[in-house]
Write a structure and sequence with these properties.
Helix content: 25-40%
CATH class: Alpha Beta
Shape: globular
Distance between the termini: 14 Å
Number of strands: 5
Oligomer: single chain
Order of helices and strands: EHHEHEHEEH
Radius of gyration: 14 Å
Structural class: alpha/beta
Number of domains: 1
Largest sheet: 5 strands, parallel
CATH architecture: 3-Layer(aba) Sandwich
Bound molecules: 1,3,4-trihydroxy-5-OXO-cyclohexanecarboxylic acid
């Protein structure tokens, strides 16, 4: 069974409550349940943290063969974190960068991603479905 880790960064624990006009009204837990039902042959692990270091520790822990791929929504750290970029570069597991919103249709500071260059691909703008598109990409 293939194993994929979904990681959500800061403020994404508030999905369903946070800026619902941008991020939608659904919480991530129920979306993840739907995803698990749709892909019964894939083991989908999940981790969320508001802390940069915790995200880096998780990348290190998962990134040397423990999982087959990582789907990472680094939230605002996407635009700032050289440390997360370096962590993605350091590990061997492929990482797909995802965003719920279309970051290119938003403020200019969201147009720059620090992490894209180290990622296998980027999915942005499909709402929560961005995670499924990333999963399809990883599963090939
Ligand atoms: C986000 C986009 C980021 O710019 C923002 O800081 C987030 C969420 C998205 O999923 O659309 O927290 O990554």
């Amino acid at each position: 069974m293939r194993r994929i880790l979904i990681m959500n960064g800061p403020n994404l624990n508030l999905l369903g409550k946070r800026e619902t006009e941008i991020y939608g009204v659904h919480d991530f837990k129920s979306y993840l349940e739907q995803l698990r039902e749709r892909y019964p042959n894939v083991r989908l692990d999940f981790f969320q943290s508001n802390m940069e270091g915790a995200l880096i520790d998780k990348l290190h822990e998962a990134g040397f063969g423990k999982v087959d791929g990582i789907i990472l929504n680094a939230g605002a750290y996407t635009h700032t974190s050289i440390a997360i970029l370096d962590a993605i570069k350091a590990i061997s597991t492929p990482v797909v960068e995802v965003h719920i919103s279309n970051v290119f249709a938003r403020e200019a500071f969201r147009h720059k991603s620090m992490i894209s260059e180290a990622c296998k691909g980027v999915v942005t703008g499909f709402g929560l479905d961005s995670y499924r598109v990333a999963l399809e990409g990883l599963l090939g």
